[in-house]
Amino acid sequence: METPALEVQVQTLPNSPGVYQYYDKNGKILYVGKAKNLKKRVTSYFTKRHDSHRIGVMVKKIKEIKHIVVESETDALLLENNLIKKHQPRFNVMLKDDKTYPWICIKNERFPRVFPTRKLIKDGSEYYGPFTSFKTVNTLLDLIKGLYKLRTCNYDLSEEKIRNGKYKVCLEYHLGNCKGPCEAKQPEAEYNSNIEAIRQIVKGNFKDSLQQFREQMKTHAEKMEFEDAQRIKNKIDVLENYQSKSTVVNPKITNVDVFSIVSDEGYGYVNFLQLSHGAIIRSHTIEMKKKLEETDEELLELAITEIRQRFSSNSKEIYVPFKVDAGEEVKVIIPKLGDKKKIVDLSLRNAKYYRQERFKQMKIVDPDRHVKRIMAQMKEDLRLNVEPRHIECFDNSNIQGTNPVAACVVFKNGKPSKKDYRKFNIKTVEGPDDFASMEEVVFRRYKRLLNEGEDLPQLIIVDGGKGQLSSGVKALEALDLRGKIAIIGIAKRLEEIFYPGDTIPLYLDKKSETLKIIQQLRNEAHRFGITFHRNKRTKTALNTELEEITGIGEKTVVELLKQFRSVKRIKEASEKELTEVIGVSKAGIIFNHYKSENTPE
């Protein structure tokens, strides 16, 4: 499918956090931006008037929009930073320099220091972050310093140098901020246990610390020290909103290509994430038409070769969701958990979003292909012999056994065909009997279609479980249609789909389009049936009194009830009041009827 028109691209964007990229007609990147809601943010470029001349010029040049969906707004911020630094888009002003977001470093040394840094040095040190705000970094470091006494000097505290008395304690020791490991005043084991506790804090495990802060805040508040209480409350807010893990940037992952795939009957959608020094610098998704019954493994192998050539990737390592053959020179890793698995999941998420957008775009640009795809999917999911282009769904409606009715709704090519909807009064069944009612309406519906030579559906759905389904099957057998039309039942509670003669129900994926269409059919049948049932009950209620008066019809009753709201008020109304609503003649009939009723014999 060719790149759709710009308005179609905007219309089908997801309402998720992520990063968007604008490209011109030559495929050159113009701008990279982040968004909490991609659709809202991008739409604003094309609907608002821009004060900035630069933005106005850029919008005129946009021909294609690409995006990467991420878990959170924080990840979007970090990814935006990576992509701007990598691609240096013409219309971006901020973040083009080499200044990066800060990290917290636990230095690889004896008696490790803990400090903020913007540089990652590959010396075995541990880096946590990156952080989108120095406020978060400072709050965490304040928390750490408040709980643990750590050194700040950059001495080489080797055993030999400490033993030889090379260093003397500094002012930090006398101020109580350090326990003096430089003079062996603090054992290494004690210092290292503090470092382990600090690791837990920067990973986000600070339940105990939060509890301590809350107690301090409460104490300050009780002493009327509201400024101090607010200061601690601000720290609590920062810690509660802190996310220690970023899927987008991870210093443990170096230069890697990540691939994932989702597919349907006709197409495979392959997403590619390129990581350089632990940061995502590219995301690209392609749509591949299946030539034969190709497996996901075969499609992914083809895509890996094509994408790596297109982007001249020389990474020696790739992450994929399942085993593939990528050649002898490439190491293939199938992550099962941890950070590597998260990055594969992120790639898979982007492939799924891309597929959804293609469906939405197809619906707008090429509705015939969209219908064909949906029908093929339903045929496969429901194990049918033919595509269900014409589906009919039945629902019974009765409340406390009164006025039993049934509804039949019709979908053609996956859409409601309201002119074909039919409603039924139950004629042969006494009292509330769902099974017998279902048998009656299914029989009446298809007997009539057969008599009139109308087209029969490819699929019948009955709202209910095994009992209603059996009743529908009986009706088809009586008409010699069993086996000629597929029939299934859908049970409400667990969305179980039952087949004739099969005790084990089918469970469809909760997000599948097939289940969504079946649910839409069931809900529409229920709505249509309930509306008919209510109207009938209302009419019956009216019939019980006012319409029994000779010479008064339904329209007159409706007019009276609109004005007087109840039968009681109509009885109490004067002849003049009635005349103003329904005229002299009918007013006289009603007035005299109730007058004679109230006159004692």
Automatic annotation (TrEMBL):
Function: The UvrABC repair system catalyzes the recognition and processing of DNA lesions. UvrC both incises the 5' and 3' sides of the lesion. The N-terminal half is responsible for the 3' incision and the C-terminal half is responsible for the 5' incision.
SMART domains documented for this protein: GIYc
Protein name from the UniProt record: UvrABC system protein C
PROSITE patterns reported in the protein's UniProt record: GIY_YIG, UVR, UVRC
Pfam families hit by this protein: GIY-YIG (PF01541), HHH_5 (PF14520), UvrC_RNaseH (PF22920), UvrC_RNaseH_dom (PF08459)
Gene Ontology biological-process entries: nucleotide-excision repair; SOS response
Keywords linked to the UniProt accession: Cytoplasm, DNA damage, DNA excision, DNA repair, Excision nuclease, SOS response
Assembly notes: Interacts with UvrB in an incision complex.
Family, per entry: Belongs to the UvrC family.
Gene name linked to the record: uvrC
One annotated Gene Ontology cellular component of this protein: cytoplasm
